[in-house]
Write a structure and sequence with these properties.
This protein is of the alpha/beta class and 226 residues long. It has 6 helices and 14 strands. The chain has one domain: Metallo-beta-lactamase, Chain A (4-Layer Sandwich). It is globular and about 50 Å long. It binds nickel (II) ion and manganese (II) ion (MN).
Length: 226
């Protein structure tokens, strides 16, 4: 059984039959986060890129919980120096972790770490577990090889729609057409005024123009995949 809880922005808690995986755990600086970094459970943490609103509370949560952090080799090296247990991967590479197979995919963005260190290439994340495929796009602009990611047969796509730093609603709609997921959930919007979007209006466009089912989640809400 897989359940997803949205912590706002691009932060997610995914429960894979009891194994807790945190994605982009931006909590303490996140004005809409429904819980604190002291409360978030984690067996694994996945970090898409080095920016503060994605790396977030990774160091604190990993040290408190003993979670293993999955990230690109540059971010993993930076975390290792801070005493965090890591599993480095890189773009195009997958590994069978206890909860599922995790592959890093491309994202068109930056990835510097909070202290200015080089954070390698930014990534998206493709997780295959319990017969389901989940794609978290990270921060990205639209790119045509989303079609290749879609060829994997996605059950769920988590896509940024906030504009300014990432795809906005128009390009995110084009992304849905390339990715062809069964379900799409928007993220990386309404955290701040700069990325304010009407997610329900976007969902209407997805419903009208694609075969994908859009779901606008509330922060703190949990859904279970059937
Ligand atoms: Ni970013
Ligand atoms: Mn971001």
């Amino acid at each position: 059984m897989i359940s997803l809880t949205w912590y706002g922005h691009s932060a997610w808690q995914i429960d894979f039959s009891g194994t807790q995986v945190l994605l982009d755990p931006f909590l303490s600086g996140n004005p809409v986060a429904p819980l604190t970094a002291d409360e978030a459970p984690a067996d694994f943490i996945i970090v898409t890129h080095g920016h503060g609103d994605h790396l977030g509370d990774t160091v604190a949560v990993a040290k408190r919980t003993g979670a293993t952090v999955i990230a690109n080799a540059e971010i993993a090296g930076w975390l290792q120096k801070r005493g965090v247990k890591t599993h480095p991967q890189h773009i195009g590479g997958g590994f069978q972790h206890p909860f599922g197979y995790v592959k890093l995919t491309i994202a068109v963005h930056g990835s510097s770490l909070p202290d200015g260190s080089y954070g390698g290439m930014p990534a998206g994340v493709l997780i295959s577990a319990a017969g389901k495929k989940l794609y978290h796009a990270g921060d990205t602009g639209l790119f045509v090889s989303m079609e290749l990611i879609g060829d994997e047969g996605l059950d769920v796509a988590l896509l940024p729609i906030g504009d300014n730093y990432t795809m906005g609603p128009d390009d995110a709609l084009r992304a849905v057409k390339l990715l062809r997921p069964r379900l799409v959930i928007p993220m990386h919007y309404n955290t701040w005024d700069l990325i304010a979007q009407d997610a329900h209006a976007w969902a209407e466009r997805v419903r009208a123009e694609t075969d994908t089912r859009p779901l606008v989640m509330n922060v703190g809400e949990t859904i279970t995949l059937e």
